[in-house]
Design a protein that fits this description.
The chain is an alpha+beta fold and 456 residues long. Helices cover 48% and strands 12% of the residues. It folds into 4 domains: 5-120, Butyryl-Coa Dehydrogenase, subunit A, domain 1, CATH 1.10.540.10; 152-267, Butyryl-CoA Dehydrogenase, subunit A, domain 2; 276-424, Butyryl-CoA Dehydrogenase, subunit A, domain 3; 427-456, no CATH class.
Length: 456
């Protein structure tokens, strides 16, 4: 039964299509409303405060006091860890992928809002990974501190010396310590793990090659826990993204030189890194896309305000009164609503058929949303004129994040390649289908006395 209309008479549901609204539980509806209130009252107005606190001397790589305060408040209000799937039992808020996606778009309106709710990457994916693949002892040691908001985690997979689109080429090495087989040694280079300068970061989940001679390339790699600051782990530098350092979490380039960790830090077992990675990525890709849609909606709203600003009247007309800009705004609106349908469909498919069955829908979202959102934000910058590419607006940071997501959790080229390969596999059945058309066409030609002609 559809929820009562009055329950959905709220701005949080204004863009959610009717078919998705019908699938929202009463609990989800109330949660989405609470998230909307949280972001609109605690996060959007506090954006300048967040930036000001980061700019204070010695605070650049520390979690801003504002965020710490909000994290504690979110715990008390039952808004912490909203992403947790039902497999977490009592710890889970019980939201479906579709329901959490609706929350996620609202959360995405402010880049750091997810952190206040402990729903930020890479911790969300890491927590799901640990819950799914770790032993009970490992969960107590590594998962619970992140789940309770006591520390942050990082994920380290990408390397500068290997093609990032082919993870089987990862060559950072894990070997047994020749002096004590209860310990492992890590040697190699990594990119994109969170900055070691981040004060509240506790550990890295690292994927490296442990069995290079294994004939099965999917069994050569192992995933391990590496505590931040382990001797032999060195952060070479912060990696900026389009010139932004993305403090306080940021990204780093790391060098591992005989970095020694206990063998007990292996997750699931040696050679099972790809099994872990695939179990981690599906939901995270959807989360990225929905947050990105929320951010892009904000960019669009800013542009509507610009288009109707009475102070901005080139040639005596509002910016929004020019035909070209009216069409621009219409096109952006249509694109945003189309993208939302694609991601909600992916989330619903995952709920109904599972992550594996939803692979195509997930890939479709991951390919289309970052690319199109970057283009929409680019148009928003254009309509803001010169100010649109400066720090006077948040548009350049929004665009940078959208551009980055085309690479996060796998480059879009790799996803397109997978979708294309899957489509080519449908050709034999289509050939049979079209052969049947030809056969029936010949039969109809004979019946009606029409000369048969071949067609492609």
């Amino acid at each position: 039964m559809s929820p009562p209309a009055r329950d959905l008479d709220h701005p949080a549901f204004a863009r959610i299509p009717p078919w998705a609204q019908e699938k929202l539980s009463s609990k989800a509806i109330e949660t989405i409303k609470k998230v909307h209130h949280w972001v609109e009252t605690e996060c959007v107005p506090a954006e300048p405060i967040y930036k000001a606190q980061l700019e204070k001397p010695g605070q650049r790589w520390k979690t801003p006091p504002l965020v710490k305060e909000l994290r504690e408040k979110a715990k008390k209000e039952g808004l912490f860890n909203l992403f947790l799937p039902k497999t977490f039992g009592e710890l889970s808020p019980g939201l479906t992928n579709l329901e959490y996606s609706c929350c996620c778009e609202i959360i995405g309106r402010v880049y750091w809002a997810a952190m206040t709710l402990n729903c930020h990457a890479p911790d969300t994916g890491n927590m799901e990974l640990m819950a799914k693949f770790c032993t009970e002892e490992q969960k107590q040691k590594w998962l619970m501190p992140v789940l309770n908001g006591e520390t942050f985690s990082a994920y380290s997979m990408t390397e500068p010396d290997a093609a990032s689109s082919d993870a089987t080429k990862i060559n950072c090495r894990i070997t047994r310590d020749p002096k004590d087989s209860n310990y492992l040694l890590i040697n190699g280079r990594k990119l994109y793990g969170n900055c070691a300068w981040e004060e509240d970061l506790g550990f890295y989940i690292l994927m490296a090659c442990s069995d290079p001679e294994n004939p099965n390339p999917w069994k050569r790699h192992t995933t391990v826990f590496v505590p931040k600051g382990t001797p032999g782990q060195k952060m070479v530098r912060n990696l900026t993204v389009m010139g932004y350092d993305w403090a306080p979490e940021g990204h780093g380039e790391f060098l591992y030189t005989n970095c020694r960790i206990p063998a007990a830090n292996i997750i699931l077992g040696e050679g099972r890194a790809f099994e872990i990675a695939q179990g981690r990525l599906g939901p995270g890709r959807i989360h990225h896309c929905m947050r990105l849609l929320g951010q892009t909606e904000r960019a669009y709203e800013m542009t509507l305000l610009r288009a109707t600003d009475p102070r901005k009247k080139p040639r005596g007309k509002l910016i929004g009164e020019f035909d070209s800009n009216i069409e621009r705004l219409a096109q952006m609106r249509l694109q945003l609503d189309s993208l939302r349908l694609i991601v909600l469909n992916a989330a619903d498919t995952m709920d109904l058929k599972g992550n594996k069955a939803g692979r195509y829908a997930i890939a479709q979202s991951k390919i289309l949303v970052p690319d199109m959102c970057a283009k929409i934000i680019d148009e928003c910058m254009q309509m803001h004129g010169g100010a649109g590419v400066t720090q006077l607006t948040s548009l350049p940071e929004m665009w940078t994040y959208a551009r980055f997501v085309r690479l996060a959790d796998g480059p879009d080229a790799a996803h397109r390649h997978q979708v294309g390969r899957d489509e080519l596999k449908t050709a034999p059945k289509l050939r049979e289908q079209h052969g049947a058309y030809q056969k029936r066409y010949k039969e109809l030609c004979e019946k009606w006395g029409i000369e048969w002609q071949s067609f492609l």
